[in-house]
Structure to design on (786 residues):
């Protein structure tokens, strides 16, 4: 049975160098095989790499940026506001993607677009304006140097205050900071893998979308009945209200309790003053509103305001766990107002809070250990919890001033300049590690090492389960759960929906196979969808191996081997090389990749049509 | 007694479920741009998330400007008489709240009809930000908030079983006038 609805079958291809806009059709075969979101992105990036002989040039004009929602984006079902940005990452030089919630992807769908791909470089700083069936490239050089929020404000003034959705880069993106992000709807960021730098390299300040079309649904009644079951399940969950109140900030307390909270650049897994930066503190003193992605009852987003003190007047969409941990405990900051200020600064400059917290933490530790001199720091000392110096350093990164010019190159650039820094920079493949410690969890270490984008938990997040399970898991079980996560979590990114209702509230993933059936008219079992998701994992692996990655890149940060957390429940634990090599080989074997982690030669043909 | 829709913007998360369920109910399509309710968002100064929906005014500006007698107050609801409408959109411009909407696929303006007394947006809002309440109770939420902000709130700390706690109380009548 083929796909009857759910798509507009439209691929909008924009060449910024030539100022050309093409409206291409997507074939049945394409939408069935690649589903949407990250699936479309990976396939289009693969085709583009083949065309250019797998040249590794993520910031060159031939690099392709894909923006793609999924067939379920914007549809009446829980948390359907997701959208993927896909490109070769300037941070890793390998496959990269980052997904956002909010409403930007819904607008793209309503403009009748399933995939937007952008190539080339605009002669002047420009804005791409997709207004339903009309697409324009507008040179607006006045946006140069504007923060994400200022730029969004100026664009709204010019193109209409409401009914449009804006994805913009800040100074960080313009300066091609390797971890620059894309800011949408004022504060929702596609944070990871440096997508903002890719936009910057294309002289593209913003993508603006207005969409008014009906999103085609094959069986709306069936869909509503299924969605109501899911909404009802969520509303009745015992943690539902807690999610509305604290959102992801509730994880701070949990991570601290389990000893996996980054503190002082992962020197420790617990933070003495975690109470001052946790969800309860936020709700009591700072939170002024909820922020939900499209059609999401959980509204895990927070809006905070600092009411008094030196940061008074700071408003930020956030924080969430990662931002708060990486800019808070990871830098020794126990003042929640300062965390909010740093988060807001990152949003304005358009740089990723996770990577920013990671590189600043590494600098502080590097200086503490004598790897970096005061001269390296431009004569400005920076220590744990020194809010002022840290905020200054964040500014310098985005503006590429002094030491900021090196930090802006991310983990790879830093360790090239100062090889000794490899001992304190936590990254895999050049992507700085996100805010879950893996030293006490071999499955989480495997998840970071084998994630296609680098050390991020988006592909597999097994640390909680392993911590709860204790050390009784066999290698087989660990590998199986990592691979299962790497199938199911990216599937959400392909469908264009959020995974939180599943992972946090336990909403069965089977609902999503039903949603897919009702929306597209093509019945598919969960297993079939997971297989398609697994194919994309093979595809991103192929991209990476063709670009030169192999087993040695499925590595872990130095600290994970050598420096255990000092205190707390995970104290003393590190990952053993032999254990890791054994489990990595088993992982490759189960995936059908060779000992070097390279998928079989004939696999490529599957994606070459 | 007639009931009205009351919006509590402080509760709104901006998820847009109200828009989507409204469009599905009235047009049978998955399109939040075909709804009679919209969440307006301002950020960062001030931070407001607020659904805008028809207040069913007793002296409706929309009906007053309608040249075709297409808007009539019936049983507490300003009803659109579709066959009379000439699509001049004067009503859309006249509404002081901007609570009527236009979509190019729909010939006539989109206007809240209270779903015949059982509004879908009220039922589906996950935050309780849209409520259906008797007219006489309108304003009660804000009244209570206003009392709390008007009163001189004081905070005292005390210890209960060795644990530090705080209690708030209103010091009424002692403020300097």
């Amino acid at each position: 049975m083929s796909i009857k609805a759910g798509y507009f079958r439209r691929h909008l291809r924009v060449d910024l160098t030539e100022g050309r806009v093409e409206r291409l059709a997507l074939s049945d075969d394409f939408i069935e095989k690649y589903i949407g979101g990250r699936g479309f992105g990976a396939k289009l990036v693969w085709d583009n790499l083949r065309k250019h002989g797998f040249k590794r040039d993520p910031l060159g004009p031939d690099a392709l940026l894909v923006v793609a929602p999924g067939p379920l984006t914007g549809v009446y079902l829980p948390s359907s506001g997701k959208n993927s940005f896909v490109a070769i990452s300037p941070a890793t030089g390998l496959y990269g993607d980052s997904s956002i919630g909010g409403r930007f992807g819904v607008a793209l769908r309503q403009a009748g677009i399933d995939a937007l791909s952008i190539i080339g470089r605009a002669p002047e700083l420009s804005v791409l304006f997709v207004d339903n069936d009309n697409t324009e490239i507008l040179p607006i050089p006045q946006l140069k140097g504007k923060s994400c929020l200022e730029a969004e404000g100026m664009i709204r003034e010019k193109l209409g205050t409401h009914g449009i959705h804006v994805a913009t880069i800040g100074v960080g993106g313009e300066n091609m900071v390797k971890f620059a992000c894309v800011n949408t709807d004022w504060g929702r960021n596609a944070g990871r893998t440096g997508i903002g730098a890719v936009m910057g390299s294309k002289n593209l300040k913003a993508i603006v979308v207005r969409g008014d079309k009906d999103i085609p649904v094959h069986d709306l009644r069936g869909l509503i009945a299924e969605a109501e079951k899911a909404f009802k399940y969520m509303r009745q969950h015992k943690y539902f209200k807690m999610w509305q109140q604290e959102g992801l900030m509730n994880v701070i307390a949990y991570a601290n309790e389990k000893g996996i909270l980054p503190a002082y650049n992962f020197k420790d897994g617990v933070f003495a003053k975690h109470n001052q930066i946790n969800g309860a503190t936020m709700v009591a003193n700072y939170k002024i509103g909820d922020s939900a992605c499209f059609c999401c009852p959980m509204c895990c987003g927070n809006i905070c305001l600092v009411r008094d003190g030196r940061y008074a007047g700071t408003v930020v969409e956030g924080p969430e766990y990662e931002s708060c941990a990486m800019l808070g405990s990871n830098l020794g900051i126990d003042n929640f107002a300062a965390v909010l200020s740093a988060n807001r600064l990152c949003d304005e400059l358009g740089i990723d809070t996770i990577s920013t917290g990671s590189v600043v933490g590494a600098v502080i530790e590097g200086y503490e250990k004598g790897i970096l001199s005061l001269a390296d720091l431009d004569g400005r000392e920076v220590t744990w919890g020194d809010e002022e110096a840290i905020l200054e350093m964040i500014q310098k990164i985005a503006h590429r001033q002094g030491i900021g010019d090196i930090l802006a190159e991310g983990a790879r650039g830093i360790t090239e300049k100062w090889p000794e820094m490899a001992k304190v920079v936590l990254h895999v493949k050049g992507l700085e590690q996100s805010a879950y410690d893996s030293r006490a969890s071999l499955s989480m270490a495997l998840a970071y090492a084998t994630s296609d984008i680098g050390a991020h938990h988006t592909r597999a997040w097994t640390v909680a389960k392993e911590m709860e399970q204790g050390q009784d898991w066999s290698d087989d079980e660990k590998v199986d759960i990592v691979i299962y996560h790497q199938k199911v979590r990216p599937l959400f990114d392909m469908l264009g929906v959020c995974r939180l209702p599943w992972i946090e509230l336990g909403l069965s993933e089977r609902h999503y196979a039903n949603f897919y059936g009702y929306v597209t008219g093509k019945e598919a079992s969960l297993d079939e969808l997971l297989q398609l998701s697994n194919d994309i994992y093979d595809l991103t692996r192929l991209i990476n191996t063709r670009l030169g990655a192999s087993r040695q890149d499925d590595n872990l940060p130095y600290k994970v081997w050598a420096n255990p957390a000092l205190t707390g429940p995970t104290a003393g634990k590190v990952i053993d090389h032999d254990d890791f090599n054994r489990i990595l080989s088993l992982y490759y074997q189960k995936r059908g990749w060779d000992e070097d982690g390279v998928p079989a030669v004939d696999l490529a043909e599957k994606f070459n049509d | 007694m007639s009931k009205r829709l009351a919006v509590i913007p402080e509760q709104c998360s901006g998820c847009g479920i109200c828009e989507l369920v409204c469009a599905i109910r009235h047009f049978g399509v998955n399109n939040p741009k075909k709804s009679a309710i919209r969440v307006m968002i301002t950020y960062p100064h001030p931070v407001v998330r607020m659904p805008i929906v028809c207040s069913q005014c007793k002296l409706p500006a929309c009906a007053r400007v309608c040249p075709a007698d297409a808007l009539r107050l019936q049983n507490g609801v300003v009803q659109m008489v579709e066959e009379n409408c000439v699509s001049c959109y004067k009503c859309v411009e006249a509404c002081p709240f901007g609570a009527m909407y236009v979509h190019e696929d729909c010939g006539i303006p989109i206007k809240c009809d209270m779903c015949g007394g059982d509004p879908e947006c009220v039922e589906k809002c996950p935050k309780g930000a849209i409520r259906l309440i008797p007219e006489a109770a309108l304003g009660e939420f804000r009244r209570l908030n206003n009392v709390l902000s008007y009163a001189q709130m004081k905070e005292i700390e005390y210890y209960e079983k060795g644990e530090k706690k705080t209690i708030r109380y209103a010091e009424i009548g002692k403020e300097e006038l």
